Amino acid sequence: MRVEPLLQVVYEDKELLVVNKPAGLVCHPTKTDEYSSLISRARLYLGTGSRPQLINRLDRETSGITCLAKDEVAARKARRLWESRQVTKEYLAIVHGAVHQPEGAVSARLGKDERSPVAIKDCVREDGAEAKTEYRRLKNFTSTVLGAESPGLASPWFSLLRVIPHTGRKHQIRIHLAHLGHPIVGDKIYGGDEDLYLALVEDRLTEQQRARLILPYHALHAARVGFCWDSADKVFEAEPEPWFKAFCSWTVEPV
Asked: Is this prediction's pTM over 0.90?
């Protein structure tokens, strides 16, 4: 018997449903049980005959603000906002290493990584699509929940960043931060050893490999989304999950 809630609802009106998606939950429908995707949970929440549609999508392991429309008309209206870049988005990320600059930006074109055995992996490449990501350092820290015996740890330092993507390319934040030299903690594709991702999907991830990842999911959280809806400015916020907050000794509130 399940005891977990269907959804953590952040906002709801007659057209929109905004939720805080947990890490580990896929957005798209799956062939398993009705709890196995965000969209199927939304159908259960809204009831028989409902046809919710995803407006923005997060990777399976990324937590945070996800917007759904309750019908096709609302979906078209909301998607126009995303397509015309009238939506502001802010993420929180925990990355490896101490980021020395208090703020900065990465502008690097992205495209398919044709050399990788991971089919979904992209990379920085000159002929790719334009992409820009801003970041601001919130703090550098050493984690009180991380043992000194953690294997393969090059540096005991980490940074908590607030990240603003100005474009919406696939895996953009994860690639850009890795390109900067500060991959996201727990990232199985862009963290430096893509075999960790292959091991996960092939169900052969060992306890030793899990220890190398440090965290159960990659530490990326969609903390804030804002846009104008029916002539009113809407801002939706959600705090990251307990494992994320515990690792960085959470003291910084989203703004």
From this structure: yes
- Phi then psi for residue 63, to 5 deg, are -95, 170
- Is 195 in the active site? no
Alpha-carbon distance of 114 to 174, in angstroms, equals 18
Strands 53-54 and 63-69: antiparallel
- Structural contact between residues 10 and 19, judged by C-beta atoms closer than 8 angstroms: yes
Of 13, 33, 59, 127, which is the active-site residue? 59
Per residue in 49-72, pLDDT tens?
A: 899 999 999 999 999 999 999 999
User: What pLDDT, on the 0 to 100 scale, is given for residue 240?
Assistant: 97
Q: Which fold has domain 88-226+240-255?
A: Pseudouridine synthase (3.30.2350)
User: How many whole angstroms separate alpha carbon 13 and alpha carbon 171?
Assistant: 30
Q: What is the CATH number of domain 1-84?
A: 3.30.2350.10
